[in-house]
Design a protein that fits this description.
The complex is a heterodimer of chains A (227) and B (55). Chain A has 227 residues and is an all-alpha fold. Chain A has one domain. Chain A has a two-stranded antiparallel sheet with strand order 1-2. The model of chain A has no long low-confidence stretch (mean pLDDT 90). Chain B contains one helix and no strands. The interface between A and B is medium-sized, with 37 and 27 residues. Chain B: One of its GO terms (molecular function) is proton transmembrane transporter activity. Chain B: Pfam families: ATP-synt_8 (PF00895). Chain B: It comes from Xyrichtys novacula (Pearly razorfish).
Chain lengths: 227, 55
């Protein structure tokens, strides 16, 4: 069997257990159960601070009606950022590189925001299809364009996360392979490649966090329009 | 691309939502946020003594 660079994204099993299952179950052991102490340990304090500040920040533009989504969106953020960051460790499997997972989250949540808008305030929800101040002759074209852009949203949401993480992992593997192969042949170039790899890894850490945040932020924006 | 292999799509979807709905909200909700503590004042405030009845 010839290995290709895409094989890291397959959904493999090890000893009969699919790695996807392990990658989805084990990260939550890193989040201990909070105690009833007023001042807890560092890990719990950090996690609590993050959850608190994130929820506060995300709920600011949403009105009271949007606050029902606080738990869902914060859980989604914790889910995505943990999976993304843990995937950067060597030999780990990143579930968020799977299109199935990302589309599986993007489509239902986007659809939920659209249906909420259509049910509670259908005029306002449909009114978003026509930006203010459009010249009259352009109205039909613009409505078509806005409808297309509305339906592209879930696809963009899912594919954005998948593509960013997949591309990052692929690049890391490629450049690592290059550095490894070059090491006996051209050590100086291999050293430069290794430096590039270090910088790329730092970039991927940032991308992991940012992409998780962007996913949840865009969902909150779609909610803001419709709630 | 192996991600486009449709075989485990539904399993992945189902399993990831299961974990997302069962495990995560419990962990997120169990964090409580007490009110911010106030610092004790340096001096105790002077209380006014009350030695006579209300009326």
């Amino acid at each position: 069997m010839v290995l290709s660079f895409f094989d890291q994204f397959m959904s493999p099993s090890y000893l009969g257990i699919p790695l996807m299952a392990l990658a989805l179950i084990l990260p939550w052991t890193l989040y201990p159960k909070p105690t009833s102490q007023w001042i807890s340990n560092r890990v719990l304090t950090l996690q609590g601070w993050f959850i608190n500040r994130f929820t506060q920040q995300l709920m600011l533009p949403l009105g009271r009606k949007g606050h029902k989504w606080a738990l869902l969106l914060t859980s989604l953020m914790v889910f995505l950022i943990t999976l993304n960051m843990l995937g950067l460790l060597p030999y780990t499997f990143t579930p968020t590189t799977q299109l199935s997972l990302n589309m599986g989250f993007a489509v239902p949540l986007w659809l939920a925001t659209v249906l909420i808008g259509m049910r509670n305030q259908p005029t306002i929800a449909l009114g978003h299809l026509l930006p203010e101040g459009t010249p009259t002759p352009l109205i039909p074209v613009l409505i078509i364009i806005e409808t297309i852009s509305l339906f592209i949203r879930p696809i963009a949401l899912g594919v954005r996360l998948t593509a960013n993480l997949t591309a990052g992992h692929l690049l890391i593997q490629l450049i690592a392979t290059a550095a490894f192969v070059l090491a006996p042949l051209m050590p100086t170039v291999a050293l430069l490649t290794a430096t590039l790899l270090l910088l790329l890894t730092l970039l991927e850490v940032a991308v992991a966090m940012i992409q998780a945040y962007v996913f949840v932020l865009l969902l909150s924006l779609y909610l803001q329009e419709n709630v | 691309m192996p991600q486009l292999n449709p075989a485990p799509w539904f399993t992945i979807l189902f399993f990831s939502w299961l974990i997302f709905l069962i495990v995560l909200p419990r962990k997120v909700l169990s964090h409580t946020f007490p009110n911010e503590t106030t610092s004790r004042s340096a001096h105790t405030p002077k209380t006014e003594p009350w030695a006579w009845p209300w009326y």
